[in-house]
Amino acid sequence: MRTDILNVYGFYASPLGETAAGFIRDQIAAAWADHAGARVAGFGYAEPYLSGFPDAERTIALAPEGQGVVHWPQGEKSRAALVADHHWPLPDASVDRLLIVHGLEEASKPVRLMREAWRVLADGGRIIVVVGHRRGAWAMVETTPFAAGRPYLRGQLVRLLNETMFEPSNIASALYFPPFGARYLLRAANAWEAAGGRLWPWLGGVLMVEAKKRIAQGAAVAEAAPLLRPAIAPQRLGAVARAPDAPYAARLAPSTARPGRARAA
Question: How far is CA 220 from CA 42, 60, 97, 115, 216, in A?
Answer without folding.
Answer: 20, 21, 17, 7, 9
